[in-house]
């Protein structure tokens, strides 16, 4: 659907645990043999990104697999193509142009030939094979011991990284290590198995297109086809270069590939390297490809080290010639060299893990899952203030690369507490689209304020199905919530004044216009015709989550205005003048805050999902054939789905979690119990949230079960669709599940609270959070809890209600249990 | 929208009274001069149909007007073309093939040349012009006195009829009457203005296509283009013939044109006619046209009478060769002759008016409007049991020729009381689609029963926008209501047993599955996620109209089963066995009937439109710029519209009217007052219904105002879109407004009730109704009321609660006031 299920459950066997294919390790994920049927999925597992470039973990040899077996994918965050959307029936305000993250030219293909025999895993003998994702260091290495059909033996090492320190750069290294040749059977054949020449073929392929539409039954606005028109395509010894322009969005991309070859003494590790001069270098270009073939005379006792630098420049953020930028960046890469790039990569990842790592002691399986999840969201988040984070990061074409509420509600809290500079960059991106959100609010009939789009890349609404798209107004409050959270946790006053206050007020304005005080509901403020997070109940009145989040959005706006008043003489008057905020307007906001309506079931004493929820048909799974149960929208008409009293995913429960300070424990329990019964968890955004609330109300076993599913959802491919890309929100949700869940971290009451609990199955866990400029390391086991202030002058927090103050002097608090 | 506003208000100046362009007459509508700017509209005014063929009132000369000025249109009821529908996002159960009533080859074009000068109203001098729709007789005549640019004077008479007695036939007559020529200025030029040769060019044009999509912004599934592939196209002296097959639906249409020419003595009226032999007859064909040109030597004192027979045969109901059928039918027409066809037409119309005419005395303007309306619905209704009646009849391409609920709820009651054989044919059509409705119910997840499509031609759902399409489940109850009404009013027992009982039970089954007994509503039966008739409030819970109609649908099904029990030993057991109806099922139905939930506002003591209605934003017209007020869906996003507390059209009010016996007068008044305030009447289906209820509660002035708008809506083009076709439902609504409204006719209490009232502005009115085999003539004035049994043995009715019995002997009841 427009929202979050397109493709999600497509081939789904949701809930079924797929065979684990990687051994349990702490910091690595390793593939031990090449199995063609796992290829598609492994392309996502080994996908790399730096938040700008994203590349799928395809193999350097560039196999011609079908679209059922694999998908070559190279993306640049924010680089999209448009086309005219066609509707069964058009309505005013329906988006007219689509946005699709475009699959870009591929420069990774590097083929190795031994005296003319091409390295191919499908041929000859693979004597050993290992591919490892080094999550701690941020790169992938593949080692293959291979004997060609002609009997030539070689050890090949492939490394790849997408640079965290040079946003336009991806780098690859291939090491060709000739092995002692076999002795031939007859003496006159001496040297039969000796390799004389090594040829390396570099290939930059501009004949690329998106494939999602071929495999996704719900996307229905036409075949996509090839969307780049070649503007320059050339090959020289120094550079392979492709430049193309998209047909509709008019964006240009330049992709350059430069290489460097050297010899090393075999077995010398990372020692001195000598330049390798090819015997011959042949270059060639076609309509949209550029190729270079270098042939080297094999040297005894030496291994060939072949480095490839692939750079991408987009017209969206390079001002001058894309070609010049590519030439320059490739030159810089050659100067820096692969080794140094890798060193920088290690440092960058070290810096990330220093704050982000969550160690689960006593369960390596979950620990590995957790790190895998953190690795993927960390690498995929846009960090340039011009891009967000897609629901599938940059790991595939799923959801057309769109940014949803996932960013703000699932991903962002992780960064707020561990890498606030990334959180800030993501919010800067949203802020940069505020003008478009204002325009969108007008389209929806709101005279003031801003309405953020449900799904977008460029800031415009791209949802083609408004019941599960534009109707999800809650994204406005979600974004406002994220701005508040960032400011509350980081204390970033400049950002508050320059960004957050404006976003809070502009989003509040839409909430103040969308509903009304209804006499029929005791003059409470009602909001009709919206869709909450739950996509199985669309176009409803008074969705609990929406009303709650809207109220808090407005409350935060009111608070922001109060706070501005305290920030010097000029701040407040200038702000209200600029936005034209009147006292009457603020008074109206306050009235809404005090009089928000919430659906309530007197008998059960719970908050139903929305006004109509308790009137819908009790859900009866048995009426649904098993194979259709997790694919509701593909097997049932939306109206059938809307009429059932069930929920796809955490909805009211998420609201109660985010504002848990506003509810009593009894309320939380009653509501949790109710929603636990009616929620199908057909979205990957659901279990982590239930797990957290389960912790809060002491349902620890249930919480542990939810967490276990959540932590390895992608690594074990529970949804059987990992091939299509990561489930970024759930990945972030596992961090939340430990930190918000088991450790009970909350800041929603205005102070840092903790209430660590260690599940019985574990020995303990540790993690780090950053709060108001300080850094707190938390370690909890069944025996004790330990809190260390590792950075900052002072930190005050509440441990199960007890105030603890750490300082530089007394930086540790330890408590036995 | 999917429903009924596509195009309706497109160019609208809704509510504004356009200049009246026809003089007030009792039985005719006359155009007194040809004004190009009125052409498009006049094409609808003078459109003719027999329920099978429909043709727009285009001129025989075949002008090359732009699509802003006119639309040649020839249709065969039920003949449609399909194409693949494309959606912004596809969902399960969305129709995959469209259905569009196809604009067919045109055989009307008949051009007259006087010595080579072509008759053209835009050239030369038009000395007089008159076109008249003879509603009493069922044909159109145009008389033009014209002098060519070359000074030749002629009187031309064009007549056209679409035969009520030969469903495949349309006939045209042209009379060319040469006038005394002017004397030239110089004697040597004697004879300069004398016409020597008359050429008649007949032209069958297969190069046709639909144009709606070019002018309708809401239809958005691609350009339509030419859809007929020519299979045969030929011209001979005897016949012009075109046969083509649609590209996607695979239907074939054959169209033949035959002509006959004769001489008459000028001024001899309809006397003896002599065959006219042409000097020359040239025939010609191109890729998809066939042409014949006949040249006649002018004869002094004689006028040329040129008759054209145009026949259409479709593969949908002709079993053999379409060509053979066309040849045969053309031959038959020649035998019968134009005069006789016209005579038959007169008789057929006489027979119709005998029962259908409503005479309004003292207001010729309204009387003319009423007759115009009745004429159009009468001629356009399908009467072969295989076709229904489109929302625009067969007068244009609007709504793609689809059949909606309009047929059953607006059109059908008129026929039930005046032409039950047409009512029956329309219901037979619905019954013929029952299997498709059963299949559709499965698609919507209902294990039993039938769900009729919101819009269709071939019985499949063709709505491309489910919030205003498939969600309008009420059509199921509407159709059931119509079956009940027909049986109740006609007493047709065979039809009850063979058709109605099954439809009632199958529709009831969907109602019994769609909702549930909700604890939260006191265990009342609730129906969620439907759209009522009101299209400004979509996907709502417990729409009052829907719940009411659903309950009555189920009640009628229960009654039908009871009635079957009394119809011989076999009827009931066979019926329940065939449909698999169990006692538990019927018990469940009864429980629903007894426990249906209705939204109720305690304070106002009214029934809101639906559960959420009272929470929506009070409508504020002043926020909407005047030019956008009547085009809401073209200027506002659906979500904006859904959130307003206003109603597009009669919704709850219609339900209360149809079941007025279930409400007290006070209830009706309170609800009417409430809806009167919140209803915008942006649908043409609204005012007539309000007018009727206004009568019932004694708001006669208001009723008269509503009626006045309704009666001349199309003739005066109030919606400024009459060019696109008739508003059939409103046309029928004006009959209802007099008979149900001012005369207070009801049968919903199980007996015929009347309560005639004459508006002050009128002298009186008269009409006829047929009830249980008898015919009652009703005449009412300010002085007296008179009731005459004109057919049948006995009739019992209640006049303002007083029982009156008329019989053959005492066939008149008269009462002074």
Strand percentage of chain A lies at 15-25%
- The total strand number of chain A stands at 32
Question: Pair with the most extensive interface?
Answer: A-B, 66 and 66 residues
Uncertain stretches of chain A:
1-18
* Rg of chain A, nearest Å: 28 Å
Fraction in helix of chain A: 25-40%
Structural class of chain A: alpha+beta
What kind of sheet is the major sheet of chain A? 10 strands, antiparallel
Average residue pLDDT of chain A: 94
Shape of chain A: globular
Oligomeric organization of the protein chains: homodimer
Kindly report how far apart the N and C termini of chain A lie: 48 Å
**SS summary, helix count of chain A:** 20
Structure explained in plain terms:
The structure is a homodimer of 817-residue chains. By secondary structure, the first copy, chain A, is of the alpha+beta class. In chain A, 31% of the residues lie in helices and 23% in strands. Chain A is built from 20 helices and 32 strands. In chain A, the strands form 8 sheets. In chain A, strands 1, 9, 10, 11, 12, 14, 15, 16, 17 and 20 form a 10-stranded antiparallel sheet that branches. The first copy, chain A, has a 5-stranded antiparallel sheet with strand order 8-7-13-19-18, with no helix packed on it. In chain A, a hairpin with a 2-residue loop joins strand 30 and strand 31. The radius of gyration of chain A is 28 Å and the shape is globular. Residues 1-18 of chain A have low confidence and may be disordered. The interface between A and B is large, with 66 and 66 residues.
């Amino acid at each position: 659907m427009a929202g979050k299920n397109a493709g999600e459950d497509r081939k789904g066997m949701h809930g079924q645990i797929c065979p684990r294919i990687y051994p349990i390790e702490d910091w690595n994920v390793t593939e031990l043999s090449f199995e063609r049927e796992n290829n598609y999925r492994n392309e996502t597992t080994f996908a790399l990104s730096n938040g700008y470039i994203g590349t799928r973990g395809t193999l350097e040899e560039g196999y011609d697999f079908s679209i059922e077996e694999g998908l070559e994918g190279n993306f640049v965050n924010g680089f999209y193509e448009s086309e005219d959307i066609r509707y069964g029936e058009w309505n005013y305000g329906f988006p007219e142009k689509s946005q699709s993250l475009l699959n870009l030219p591929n420069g990774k293909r590097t083929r190795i030939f031994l005296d003319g025999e091409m390295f191919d895993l499908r041929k000859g003998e693979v004597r050993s094979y290992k591919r490892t994702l080094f999550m701690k260091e941020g790169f992938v290495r593949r080692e293959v011991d291979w004997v060609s059909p002609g009997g030539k033996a070689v050890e090949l090492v492939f490394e790849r990284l997408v640079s965290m320190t040079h946003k336009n750069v991806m780098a690859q290294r291939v090491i060709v290590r000739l092995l002692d040749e076999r002795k031939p059977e007859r003496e006159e054949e001496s040297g039969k198995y000796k390799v004389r020449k090594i040829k390396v073929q570099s290939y930059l392929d501009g004949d690329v297109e998106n494939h999602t539409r071929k495999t996704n039954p719900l996307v229905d606005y036409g075949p996509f086809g090839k969307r780049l028109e070649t503007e320059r395509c050339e090959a020289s010894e120094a550079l392979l270069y492709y430049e193309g322009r998209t047909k509709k969005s008019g964006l240009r991309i330049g992709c350059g590939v430069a290489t460097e070859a050297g010899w090393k003494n075999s077995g010398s590790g990372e020692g001195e390297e000598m330049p390798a001069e090819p015997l011959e270098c042949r270059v060639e270009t076609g309509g949209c490809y550029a190729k270079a073939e270098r042939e080297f005379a094999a040297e005894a006792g030496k291994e060939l080290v072949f480095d490839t630098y692939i750079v991408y420049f987009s017209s969206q953020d390079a001002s001058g010639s894309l070609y010049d930028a590519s030439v320059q960046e490739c030159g810089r890469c050659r100067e820096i060299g692969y080794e140094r790039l890798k060193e920088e990569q290690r440092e960058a990842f070290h810096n990330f893990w220093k704050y982000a790592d969550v160690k689960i002691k006593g369960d390596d399986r979950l620990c590995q899952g957790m790190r895998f999840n953190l690795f993927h969201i960390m690498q995929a988040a846009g960090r340039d203030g011009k891009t967000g984070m897609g629901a599938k990061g940059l790991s595939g074409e799923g959801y057309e690369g769109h940014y949803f509420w996932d960013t703000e509600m699932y991903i962002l809290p992780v960064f707020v507490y561990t890498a606030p500079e990334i959180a800030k960059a993501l919010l800067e991106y949203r802020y940069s689209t505020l003008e478009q959100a204002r325009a969108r609010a007008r389209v929806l009939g709101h005279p003031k304020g801003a309405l953020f789009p449900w799904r977008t890349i460029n800031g415009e609404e791209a949802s083609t199905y408004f019941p599960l798209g534009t109707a999800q107004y809650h994204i406005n409050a979600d974004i406002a919530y994220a701005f508040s959270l960032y400011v509350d946790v980081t204390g970033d006053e400049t950002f508050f004044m320059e960004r957050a206050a404006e976003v809070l007020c502009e989003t509040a304005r839409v909430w103040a216009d969308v509903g009304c005080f209804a006499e029929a509901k005791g003059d409470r403020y009602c909001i009709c015709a919206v869709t909450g997070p739950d996509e199985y109940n669309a176009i409803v009145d008074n969705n609990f989550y929406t009303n709650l989040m809207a109220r808090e959005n407005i409350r935060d706006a009111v608070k922001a205005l109060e706070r501005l008043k305290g920030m010097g003489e000029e701040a407040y008057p200038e702000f209200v003048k600029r936005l034209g905020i009147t006292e009457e307007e603020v008074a109206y906001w306050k009235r809404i805050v005090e009089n928000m309506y919430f659906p309530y079931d007197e008998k059960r004493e719970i908050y139903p999902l929305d006004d109509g929820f308790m009137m819908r048909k009790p859900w009866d799974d048995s009426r649904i054939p098993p194979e259709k149960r997790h694919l509701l929208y593909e097997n049932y008409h939306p109206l059938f789905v809307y009429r059932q009293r069930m929920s796809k995913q955490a909805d009211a429960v998420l609201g109660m979690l985010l504002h848990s300070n506003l509810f009593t424990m009894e309320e939380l329990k009653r509501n949790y119990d109710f929603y636990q019964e009616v929620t199908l968890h057909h979205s990957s955004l659901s279990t982590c949230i239930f797990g957290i609330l389960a912790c809060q109300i002491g349902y620890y076993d249930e919480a542990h079960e939810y967490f276990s599913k959540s932590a390895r959802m992608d690594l074990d491919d529970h949804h059987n669709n990992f091939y299509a890309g990561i489930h970024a929100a759930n990945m972030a949700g596992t961090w939340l599940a430990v930190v918000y869940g088991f450790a009970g971290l909350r800041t929603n009451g205005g102070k840092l609270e903790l209430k660590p609990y260690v599940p019985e199955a574990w020995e303990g866990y540790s993690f780090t959070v950053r709060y108001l400029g300080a850094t707190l390391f938390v370690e909890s086991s069944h025996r004790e809890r330990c809190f260390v202030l590792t950075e900052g002058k002072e930190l005050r927090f509440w441990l199960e209600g007890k105030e603890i103050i750490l300082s530089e002097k007394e930086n540790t608090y330890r408590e036995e249990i």
